[in-house]
């Protein structure tokens, strides 16, 4: 994935500004014994450089608002929170050294945001072996049934996202579709569950094509696709690749074919490239269909996150327009808040100890007090109440594998505002049935 130069420049600056000097030693001691001690570090083990650097920006725009909210409420057991960036460069080979460096040199490591899709298979077991709680945005389907005790995914699996695009295609009445996905672990992981879901829903596939990123031309691939003109194209590619491919698709007479895509299309650079490829917003609106995890509008947990994010306006790394509605930034925020509440509940900042409280804090239950902010959660816990945290992304219904399915929605392009606009939510029961293999 690529983000606009403006956003990435801010995120890079933030990574430098928020870095906490590493110290030898492991995580900090028990909270009751060390209240008011050194800051607790939230490690952002994400890509801050390379083609998936937008993921680091998402982490920054979730972690920093959580840091601000927690510290304003008095910290975790009297200790402040600080976010520190550890650059995986978006590769498995770089993620393991980054994870080991984080574990060995960061005093008071409290929780981790990450690793993401390209790095999680390699890096997540390293963190779990160290009993380190992590909140990962990795879409890799291999984590759908993970046995890692300290792994939490508050974002839906890529396989569910792929199934959502398949369900949308059936609901739109597409008889056959072409699949065009850029090479790379994240995009390629979508193809098997997508093909399986499309087949189960009775939608044919005319072509399943993998394209290399950022090539000077895709005319050969476009010509092959147009030989069996599909009802729609299910598409995933970064902004540069999308700009070139969609331009040549239009030149070949395919500008009226609906293009169904996913979260990459929520970034400003991607949208600008697509609008240019279609010759303007009006033409783009006739083709673009974006199916992504539904980021609820309103609700006290969402409003609390947005207020905290907005309070940081002007700070390096903060990009309010790009990330206030990002389910990924919100999940990072909620992860840090939940870790803080779990530490408060167990009276310990040790991840191995507070980990046991996380599922209960997210679970609904009779007699529980619903809280939507860290401050309210701490107050309720101090009053001896049993709590359920409903946060920036709403309610998290964790399954036994620490995963959520979540809600998905269809957005189209509004030429009047040059922005995505919510069109419809996908039926949650149908998506859950598809994801569980019961449809």
Automatic annotation (TrEMBL):
Keyword Plastid assigned: no
InterPro entries per UniProt: BCAA_transport, Leu-bd, Peripla_BP_I
Occurrences of domain Leucine-binding protein (ranges): 40-355
Source species, domain of life: Bacteria
Pfam families per UniProt: Peripla_BP_6
Keyword field contains Lyase: no
Keywords for the protein's UniProt record, in alphabetical order: Signal
Signal peptide: 1-24
Family designation: Belongs to the leucine-binding protein family.
Protein name (database record): Amino acid ABC transporter
Lineage, top ranks: Bacteria, Bacillati, Actinomycetota, Actinomycetes, Mycobacteriales
